[in-house]
Sequence to fold (291 residues):
Amino acid sequence: MSNVTIENVTDVVIASLGENGDISGRQREIMTALLRHLHGFCKDVNLQHSEFIDACMFLARAGAICDDKRQEFILLGDILGVEVLCDMLSNPVEGSESEGTVLGPFYRENPPVLPKGASTVQTHFDNEETVYFEGYVRDASGAPIEGVTLDVWEDAPNGLYENHDHNQADFNLRGRFVTDENGHYAFRAVRPVPYPIPDNETAGELLRYMGHHPMRPGHMHFIVSRDGFRTLVSQIYDSSSAYLDNDSVFAVKDSLVADFNKAGPDLDTDLHVKFDFVLKAESASKAVAAE
Ligand code: BEZ
Ligand code: FE
Fold:
């Protein structure tokens, strides 16, 4: 019989791992570290039983509002900086490879497949500023990559993604483009504006508990993919946007900030953004992962 005390409870629980069934080395590694950190946290803050119950009720409320449109736990992970941390741990950037950042909850599969240069805008807003986005996708040696798929999506000038706004057309401001033989992509869209992440319910409770605001800087989302290369999930940020220095989900990287310049007379848009991507060959990323 073990007499559980504040001093030995962590070791007692860790010693029980795998007692009633095999667990893998990774499961043991994760659970051992989790228990050490979790118990350490409880001791650090002298967590009271009523606070433990409050936390359980909070998690129960978060679970109750999850559905196919809202994944509250990812949102909570974003607010805590955990999604961006796991993303960086999963996708270490090497050499000239482009940086990634969080996917976020607003991606929709199978966006409209559009020809190079086409516009993703279906629903217009009085205050919209149109943008011509273009650039090259290259490999680490600088060679252009043809046939790269770029899924792009953004919020509308009212700060809402189309799937959260009944007044926008289905798949408004979403599109799928492919690079040409020079590795060049181009599309027309609108300037993305800062918006609040969903901050009602438990995400809002957590933000208020932390004394944080819910705002994200204006950004265009990208998923850049092609067989043989590591898929890049990323965002391009407007260098003139508010909240670049205090993003509510900590996803801004210096290398992902681009200037939205006034467009020249050769373009029919208000603004012009140039942004190049460098993809890592899959064999190179697999070799690194195996090291
Ligand atoms: C987004 O960029 O769409 C996003 C990312 C994390 C949380 C909420 C929104
Ligand atoms: Fe977003």
Remarks:
- Residues 9-47 form one domain.
- Residues 25-45 form the longest helix (21 residues).
- Residues 75, 78, 102, 104-106, 197, 216, 249 surround benzoic acid (ligand 1) (CB under 6 Å).
- Helices lie at 9-15, 25-45, 49-64, 72-79, 82-90, 201-210, 282-290.
